[in-house]
Amino acid sequence: MKILVTGGLGFIGSHTVVELLQKNYEVVIIDNLSNSSISVLEGITSITQKSPQFYKLDLKDKLELSEFFEEHQDLDGIIHFAASKAVGESVEKPLMYYENNINTLVLVLQEMRRKELSNFIFSSSCTVYGQADELPITEEAPVKKAESPYGNTKQIGEEIIQEYAKVNSEFSGISLRYFNPIGAHKSTQIGELPIGVPQNLIPFITQTAAGERKELSVFGDDYPTQDGTAIRDYIHVVDLAKAHIVALERLIQKKNKKNYEVFNLGTGKGNSVLEVIHAFEKVTQQKLPYKIVDRREGDIIAAYADTTKANNDLGWKAELGIEEALKSAWEWQLKQD
């Protein structure tokens, strides 16, 4: 079976491509390399001994995208990762985020409609819940006004897919709401490779420990949490990648209960920023210099998943722990230096 993965050289995309190839899917990748590197393709091939087809293509280019779908009319499924993803940057550049995350989604769905393609997995985020009233967060939790343009693009994206599914019974879509993906493949051939200053906690930690950055900034220690720092549900990227295969197979095998479904992907456990720092120090034996700075705009206090629906309906469960994820992230960092 032939699967298109947009943003397939990104952090989560590349790990998902590896899992697909290892399950003998034929994989076609589209990526514009705006926040990834062509070297990731070599990493994927090195792990799997298989070479996916790669197209350096910007999904905003309607003509090129149309030509691509003309060439690949036999796709059995699409996993759509391609998007800009930094909360802070989205606050600074909202229009760029709307163009890149919303316009491209619409163009891909339009091509799917023209070619009568049906199975679609959308890379969504727990940011759609904002600061949830109750923890852990279930899929039934209300979607709140987004705290950032990035979060808003995920909300709008989900609405677009849901509304399209409503009027197209042949279409099947699943939105996967990720909590906080971290870690790297155990081979250290692929991992999180941010371009410029990392926007995510773990690459910032590993780069600081490696001496590339003077110290780690902890955004706020006055949150109403046990140690005052924000709490997130950190999930190993390999566990997350495997969930995409399970979701895709659910659609291909027509096991979905509705033609549009939503699942939370997390571990069900929250860790504070300081807990993550201490866990990293423990598994790596590295002392991490950090300083407390002001809260960051768009950040929420705490978010961790209720994974009951993913465990029971989807038949997927996170298996790897935070220490394993941090250790793999550190080994990946050492390979970069």
Automatic annotation (TrEMBL):
For the biological process aspect of GO, one term held by this record is: galactose metabolic process
Q: What is the name of the protein in this document? A: UDP-glucose 4-epimerase
On assembly, the entry states: Homodimer.
> According to the UniProt record, what class of enzyme is this?
isomerase
Q: Which CDD domains match?
A: UDP_G4E_1_SDR_e (cd05247)
NCBIfam families for the chain = galE
Q: What Pfam families does UniProt report for this protein, alphabetically? A: GDP_Man_Dehyd
Q: Which residues form the NAD(P)-binding domain?
A: 4-327
> In which pathway does this enzyme or protein participate?
Carbohydrate metabolism; galactose metabolism
As its record notes, the protein acts as a catalyst of:
UDP-alpha-D-glucose = UDP-alpha-D-galactose
Q: Which GO terms describe its molecular function?
A: UDP-glucose 4-epimerase activity
Enzyme Commission number(s) from the entry: 5.1.3.2
